[in-house]
Amino acid sequence: MDIKSKVIENYEVLHQLPELGFMEQRTAAFLASGLRQAGYQVADQIGGTGVIGRLHGPQAGPVVAVRADMDALAHTVEGRETAIHSCGHDANSAMVLTMAEAIAAKGLSKGVLKIIFQPAEETLQGARRLIEAGAIEDVDILIGIHLRPIEEARLGQATPALYHGASAIIEAEINGVAAHGARPHLGVNVIDAAAAVVHAVNAIHVNPVVPASVKVTKLHAGGPALNAIPDRAELALDLRAQHNQVMADLIAKAGGAVVTASAAVGATAVTRIKGLVPAAEYDTVLIHTAGEAITEILSPAGLLANINTPGGEDFHFYKQSKPILKTCYIGLGGDVMPGLHHPAMRFNTEALGYGTCILLKLIDKLLI
Ligand SMILES: [Zn+2]
Ligand SMILES: [Zn+2]
């Protein structure tokens, strides 16, 4: 069977098995069985429902891993909650499985090809669980691939470097001193502190060359007694930056703004960083090689420049946990409409053949 027919067949099976993060049992069983039949050494139930396959070449060489995510999203359709592959992880897994099968059929000439099917990308937990399980300890090169919305890439186009941004949440608790509304001088009003914090956060500036933002997304203070000075407030900030260094700068400045603005009115504040996802950091040589693979499959007109996208991806925890890892991440066009995470998300399945062939070419260049 040719690559295009095989990847559509694999996709159609996976598309019928939408499962939420860490519940990808049937998806994992199908992928593990495909890898085993192709001749891979397979370990499953890694970090929950993860599947890892290894194929060895006859000579020493790099360990090249290709990672695809497996989970679907929960949507409410006609009043019923249902899992749907609205981010296209069924497509990503189908392309990686089909590439893995085709490589096994012809064999490697050196090194190791490692296939990583990762659970729970949408909840940003899966990569960390695989890292804890040692999934990338022996890996030198790690490659990712994802379908992109039509605004970023059309059918017949792909970028070798999809740059996701960093994101983080800071939760803050401000404590003041309660008092009677008639005697405000005996208390410390946390609403005064919170208002000062909002102004201080909105006055934060970082390098304008790098897209970044910080804003207050939650403010809760005061109780049912409208004639009392409130002594406890809760705030949350949402932070975004396209570079990890700028995110570090934002986190330091935002934390400082919360604490010092609260102190300006006599309140105290504690902050907690929650949900920090790093930005993409790729290897330029690997991006170049992936660009060559894209050009050979899609022609020079199909090769897109690097794309900056504001969304996050837990793929970048791998690089964060192992800085010498060389990574790149292919963003594949497929005329995805109306958008990723939309319950009616659809795309042109011709993209599956293109994505599989790009991965095949890239592995050819690295291990054959
Ligand atoms: Zn998604
Ligand atoms: Zn996704």
Report the helical percentage: 25-40%
The span between the termini is: 22 Å
Mean pLDDT over all positions: 97
Tertiary shape: elongated
Can you tell me the number of structural domains? 2
Could you say what the CATH architecture of the largest domain is? 3-Layer(aba) Sandwich
Placed side by side, the strands forming the largest sheet appear as 1-2-6-3-7-17-8
Q: How many beta-strand segments? A: 17
**pLDDT < 50 stretches:** none
Order of helices and strands: HHEEEEEHEHEEEEEHEEEHEHEHEH
User: Treating each run of at least 4 consecutive H or I residues as one helix, how many helices?
Assistant: 9
Which fold name corresponds to the CATH topology of the largest domain? Answer: Aminopeptidase
Major β-sheet annotation? 7 strands, mixed
